[in-house]
User: What shape does this take?
Amino acid sequence: MNGAESLVRTLLAHGIDTCFANPGTSEMHFVAALDQVPGMHCVLGLFEGVVTGAADGYARMAGKPAATLLHCGPGLANGLANLHNARRAEVPMVNIVGDQATYHRPLDAPLTADTEGWARPVSCWTRTGSRAETVGADAAAAIQAAMPAPGGISTLILPSDVSWDDGGVVAPVLAVPSAPQVAPSALDEAAAALRSGEPTVLLVAGRALRADALAIAHRIVTATGARLMCPTSNGRIERGRGRHPVERVPYAIDQAVAALQDVRHLILVGAQAPVGFFAYPGKPGRMQPEDAAVHVLARPEQDLVDALERLADRLGAPPAPPAPMLPAPELPRGGRINPDSVAQVVAALMPENAVVVDESITFGRAFYNTAMASPPHDWLQLTGGAIGAGLPLATGAAIGAPGRRVVTLQADGSALYTVQALWTQAREKLDVTTVILSNRKYAILLHELANVGANPGRTALDMLDLGNPSIDWTHIATGFGVEAAQADTLERFADLLASANRRPGPFLIELMI
Ligand SMILES: Cc1ncc(C[n+]2csc(CCOP(=O)(O)OP(=O)(O)O)c2C)c(N)n1
Ligand SMILES: [Mg+2]
Assistant: This one.
C-alpha cells in the first residue's frame, strides 16, 4: 500500500467520506488512490475558495469534517479567505495539501512555497508528512485535532513521495475528548448576575444556537427577565416556527450600541463580547457599556448545552414556555420590490426544513426577523466577513444535508468571488435555489464611505459600481449548467421562487433590486 492509499483508508476509517478537491500534479497518487479505495465522495471545485467554502458548509450541516484536497502552497492560498470564514464558524475540517517531493523541495521549483506558513494562521494543527509509513498516523492525528469542540481546521501537507512510496499503514482511530464541563464557580457567577435584578444579556453562540440549547436558554431568561441574544454572524442557527427565537446583535454600529446601552451584565456562552466590525471615528469598539460586567459562563470549547442546563437548574427555572406560534408569513400580493417585501416572499415560500445561506449583505437586513415565522429551518451566515462564502457554503451544505432544500440569499458582488460554485451545484445536481440580489453595486461600501466620514469623488464612486458593463446573471448561470431566470417584479419573483424550491437540482433567480 502506498502512502496515499493509507491516507484515504485512514480518512474513511474515521468516517470522513467526502472530499472537496482541486488537484494538481503532486496529488495524482492521492487521486489515483480514490479509485483503489471505494467509499470517498469526491467533489470537484473549480477554484480553491469554492473547495474550502464548500467544506465549511458541509461541516456546518453534517456535523463532521470533510477533507479538502488542495494543490501546493498557492492552491491553499487561493482557499485561505474561506478557511478564515470556516475558522470563525468553528467547523472541523481536514485539509490535505499536496506538495513538492521531500527531495525536490531544495531545488526551489516554481510551485515551491512556504505552505506551512500559509496554513498556520487558519489551522489549529499543521504538519508536513515525512514518510509513507507514518502518513496514516499523521492523518489520524489531524482528525483528532480537528474534532474536539467547537471544531478546528487541521492541515496535513503531503509531499508527493510520501504519497507514492510504498509502506503505507492505516492508522487506528484515535479517541476524541468530549467537551469539558464548566466549573461550578462559572455557574455561581452567572447565577448571581441573573439574580441581581439588573439588566442582563445572555449571549449564546456556536452549539448553543441549536434548538435544544435555545429552549434551555429560554428557561433561563424567562425565569430571570434577562434578554437572550447571539452574535451578529453565526455558523448555524436552528430556528423557525415552533422554535425558541434568538435576537442577533445588530450589524450597524449605532444600532448595536443602542441595543446594549442599558446592559449591566453580559453573560457569554461560547461567545466573545461583541465588538464593531470596524473602528469608526469617534465611536466605541466594544458594543456593551464600558462599565458593564462581562461574565464567561462557558468558553467555546466547553460543553455549552450542559452549562445552560446546569445554570437553569441552579436558578430553579421552570421548563421553558412553548415557543410562540407565530402566524405563517403571508405571500404579499403585488407591491414594489424592496427589502421588506422580498423578505416577506422568501419567508412565505420557505420550504419545510430548508437550509438558508445568508450572504445578502445590505439588502437582506429584514430576512432574518421575517423568516422567524417560516417553517423550521437552519440559518447559515458569513462568519468571517470575507465575502465570497455564500455559493460555496450552499454547495457544501446541500451535500452535508441531503434531502433538504438550500436557499441562498446572495448579494451580487459577493457572489462573483466564487461564482464557479454554480458549476459544482449543476454537476452534483444539488437542490439549491440561489437568489441573486442584483443591485449591480457594492452598496454597503456606499454607506461605509459616509460612516467613516470620507468624501468620495467620481473615482471612488466608480470603485463601487458594478453596472458598467452590467453583469448578466442568467447567462452566467446557464453557462455553468444551472437553469436561471430574471425577476423584475415581486409577482414574478414569487412565481420563480415557488417553482425553483419545488424542482430537483439547482436554479438561480436574478432579482433586479
Ligand atoms: C474578501 C473580501 N474582499 C473585500 C471585502 C470588502 N467588501 C465588503 S462588502 C463588499 C461589497 C459587497 O457588495 P455586494 O455583495 O454586492 O453586496 P451589497 O453591498 O450590494 O448589498 C466588499 C467589496 C470583504 N469584506 N471581503
Ligand atoms: Mg451588490
Observations:
- The first helix runs from residue 3 to 13.
- The mean pLDDT is 96.
